[in-house]
Amino acid sequence: MTNRTIVVGLAGTFVGMTALLVIAGIVLHPIALALAVPFGAVSYFLWYHASGRLRDQARRSAEQAGPTERERARQRARAEANRERAYRAAGAADGGRGPGAGPGGSRRGARGPGGPRGSGARGPRDRAPSTDRMTEREAYETLGLDRTADGETVRRTYRERAKRLHPDGEDGDEEEFKRLNEAYETLTD
């Protein structure tokens, strides 16, 4: 039984209880009408959820709110990785001395792996885990799915493509297979 089926069943049950309470309120006692109001509200929200409108509204409000904290952290990490690559490229361009190196190749005051004065202290960015993972958006694009795809759809699509792209198969492509695995890991973490 799917979640949608369960929610539709609950909505139907609450609609029935609301109808019974309204009838009981008219026929027996007006207090039953007061009890029918919360049952009616619950019925409405369950129907709203089962119809998919609640999910659509949540998606729209999330898109309007902008990137999440996780996405902002990934953007900062990507920017830091780009700065690090640029720093390494500049070091390779001037003979491995790195930007700011003096004539003898030393960089006084520069922080190397040992930090200033060889203290062995490293900054938090040096200890940060690698950020070369793909984003959720890239993962959905790799799998060819919409961002609203549920876990079962992601799994099914991954398995179909993995069979086709596996390096031992006819149409095997090792690089695409690795990318597909990375996309699946990103979405299932």
Summed up:
By secondary structure, the chain is mostly helical. The chain is 66% helix and 0% strand.
Could you please describe the fold and organization of this structure?
The protein has 189 residues and is mainly alpha-helical. The chain has 3 domains: 63 residues; 34 residues, no CATH class; 53 residues, Helix Hairpins. It is elongated. It comes from Halorubrum hochstenium ATCC 700873. This is Heat shock protein DnaJ domain protein.
Instruction: Bin the strand percentage.
Output: under 5%
Main sheet properties: none
Please tell me how large the radius of gyration is.
29 Å
Distance between the termini: 25 Å
Taken from the alpha-carbon principal axes, the silhouette is elongated
**Relative helix content:** 55-70%
What structural category do the secondary elements indicate?
A: mainly alpha
What series of H and E elements makes up the topology? Answer: HHHHHHHH
Overall average residue pLDDT: 77
Total tally of structural domains: 3
Q: With helices defined by DSSP (H or I, 4 residues minimum), what is the helix count?
A: 8
Question: How many beta-strand runs?
Answer: 0
Low-confidence stretches: 104-121
Region (Disordered): 58-155
Domain J: 138-189
Biased composition (Basic and acidic residues): 58-87, 123-140
Biased composition (Gly residues): 93-121
